[in-house]
């Protein structure tokens, strides 16, 4: 199991390369390397304070199954709130998650609506962005 948790600065500017994945042996792996190994990936950009955040969590199991069926990895990035709030909401989930306190991912991909789904290629390139519903994953699986 992976747990995405760390955000740091990057010499290239804030973005995917600034996110890190904490793996089971407690070492950190840059998200761009995780994507290279696990991409393409669907990322749920989420926060407890966002409208429809509860609905997004209710759909998470179904979205996860849809991702698995289509060969996508799935992770949640909790943005712009305390680590504790994110952990309280996400720790008991089977989906890996990251904490992005300062919204680096929002800035990097110019996200204005939370929650939202991102489809990222193995190299971190944004392939698509969409609503947090299973139909979005199914559409991406047909593209």
Which secondary structure elements does this structure contain, and how are they paired or packed?
Elements: E1 3-7, E2 19-22, E3 28-30, H1 31-38, E4 41-46, H2 53-58, H3 60-70, E5 73-79, H4 83-90, E6 97-100, H5 104-109, E7 116-120, E8 126-130, H6 134-142
Parallel strand pairs: 4-5, 5-6
Antiparallel strand pairs: 1-2, 2-3, 4-7, 7-8
Helix pairs in contact: 3-6
Mind explaining what this structure looks like?
The chain has six helices and eight strands, in the order E-E-E-H-E-H-H-E-H-E-H-E-E-H. It is of the alpha/beta class. The chain has a single domain (3-142), classed as Glutaredoxin, CATH 3.40.30.10. The chain has a five-stranded mixed sheet. The radius of gyration is 14 Å and the shape is globular.
Tell me the domain tally. 1
Radius of gyration: 14 Å
Indicate the CATH class: Alpha Beta
Low-confidence runs (pLDDT<50, min 5 residues)? 1-14
By secondary-structure content and strand pairing, the structural class works out as alpha/beta
**What order do the helices and strands follow?**
EEEHEHHEHEHEEH
Biggest pleated sheet: 5 strands, mixed
If helices are DSSP runs of H or I spanning 4 or more residues, what is the number of helices? 6
Mean pLDDT: 80
Going across the major beta sheet, what is the strand order? 6-5-4-7-8
CATH architecture: 3-Layer(aba) Sandwich
CATH fold-level label: Glutaredoxin
| Basic shape | globular
What is the CATH superfamily classification?
Glutaredoxin
């Amino acid at each position: 199991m992976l747990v995405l948790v760390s955000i740091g600065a990057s010499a290239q500017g804030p973005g995917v390369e600034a996110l890190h994945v904490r793996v089971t042996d407690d070492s950190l792996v840059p998200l761009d390397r995780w994507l290279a190994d696990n991409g393409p990936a669907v990322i749920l950009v989420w926060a407890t304070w966002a409208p429809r955040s509860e609905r997004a969590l209710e759909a998470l199991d179904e979205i996860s199954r849809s991702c698995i069926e289509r060969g996508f990895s799935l992770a949640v990035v909790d943005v712009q709130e305390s680590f504790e709030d994110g952990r309280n909401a996400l720790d008991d989930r089977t989906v890996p998650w990251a904490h992005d306190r300062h919204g680096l991912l929002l800035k990097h991909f110019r996200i204005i609506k939370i929650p939202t789904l991102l489809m990222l290629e193995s190299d971190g390139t944004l392939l698509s962005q969409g609503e947090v519903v299973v139909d979005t994953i199914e559409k991406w699986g047909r593209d």
